[in-house]
Amino acid sequence: MEVAILIVHVLLAVALIGFIMIQQGKGADAGASFGGGGASQTVFGSSGSGNFLSRTTAILAAGLFVTSFALAIYAKQQASSISDAGIPVVETVEQALPVLEEVLTPLDSDVPVTQ
After folding, report:
1. Which of 84, 69, 72, 60 is closest to 11 using CA atoms?
2. pLDDT for 56-77, tens place per residue?
3. What is the number of H-type helices and E-type strands within the chain?
């Protein structure tokens, strides 16, 4: 389930980036009004492409939010199941201290001899 959500999440992110890059900035409207745009001959009509791209971008952003939320819930469940494994962190650290002290104490051969 997590892999499917993750794949959808990545596809939505790539599509959202693509739709944002396709859209024209607000400054492009002034240049198109002086005859350089040819907006009446586009596939979506004179103002249809802006509405289509805006709506699609909003839908993709909402989908990205939903998949992000689902992945966060799934990660929280995974983290709680790991912490419920029955191994307290304090015991693990207490068991590791003697091993760390043995590793960290210098041997006689590690200490440089000064004359």
Report:
1. 60
2. 999 999 999 999 999 999 988 8
3. 4, 0
